[in-house]
Amino acid sequence: MKKVFTFLALLVAGYFGYLQTEPGNPSGSVQQLQQSDQRLEQAFQNRTSDLQIAGSGRVTRVLSDDLEGSRHQRFILTLASGQSLMVAHNIDLAPRINGLREGDQVDFYGEYEWNERGGVIHWTHHDPNNRHPHGWLKHNGRTYQ
User: Fold this and answer.
1) Would you place residue 57 in the very low, low, confident or very high pLDDT band (cuts 50, 70, 90)?
2) Which pLDDT score, from 0 to 100, does residue 30 have?
3) If DSSP codes are grouped into helix, strand and coil, which group holds residue 142?
4) Using one digit for the tens of pLDDT, what is the confidence trace for 91-129?
5) 17: Cβ–Cβ under 8 A, 6 or more apart, which residues?
6) Structural domains in the chain?
7) Are 124 and 110 in contact (CB under 8 A)?
8) In whole angstroms, what is the distance from residue 57 CA to residue 122 CA?
9) SS (H, E, C) 44-96
10) What does R_g of the chain's alpha carbons equal in angstroms?
11) CA 20 to 30 Å from 90, out of 30, 54, 63, 73?
């Protein structure tokens, strides 16, 4: 019985530790957000793409949806570092963020692609084929994936 209790205690402690350090949990600490911003800044400077990353930013502009091919909700985030990112969130595979406004905070986990304007975050949804890491967006306490 003691072994079972010890195992369960370790399992619960490990789970809560995972929640604090999960790559998709940028709200974990200011240090994690700064590291994310630094990695995104380096990716921009080095013209790096295909970078799976979590981060957080403020909405500075809500754009019209991209309706060609797979439909995407698009908006611009500004990171604490000042870097701008466009988010292209596939609304054929994940729910739209309704009521998104300038000034809103959005956390993200997705793939960074370089462009001359700061970059794009996409793959912010589940992969129905399980070939790519599942991404997500968080807004006002709700996760969109």
Assistant:
1) very high
2) 76
3) strand
4) 999 999 999 999 999 999 999 999 999 999 999 999 999
5) none
6) 2-144 (2.40.50.140)
7) yes
8) 15
9) HHCCCCCEEEEEEEEEEEECCCECCCCCEEEEEEECCCCCEEEEEEECCCCCC
10) 17
11) 30
Location of structure tokens 């970059």: 119
Residues in the chain: 145
Confidence label for 29 from pLDDT (cuts 50, 70 and 90): low
Q: If residue 15 lies in a helix (H) or strand (E), which one and from where to where? A: helix 2-21
- What does the pLDDT read at residue 34? 87
For 75, 80, 81, 123, the CA distances from 47, given in Å and listed in that order, are 21, 20, 17, 19
**3-state SS assignment for residue 2:** helix
**Which candidate, 98, 96, 106, places its Cα nearest to that of 139?**
106
Q: Can you tell me the distance from the alpha carbon of 108 to that of 26, in angstroms, rounded to the nearest whole number?
A: 8
Whether residue 11 has pLDDT greater than 80: no
DSSP code for 109? E
Distance in angstroms (rounded) separating the CA atoms of residues 128 and 39: 28
Q: Which residue has the tokens 């500004």?
A: 78
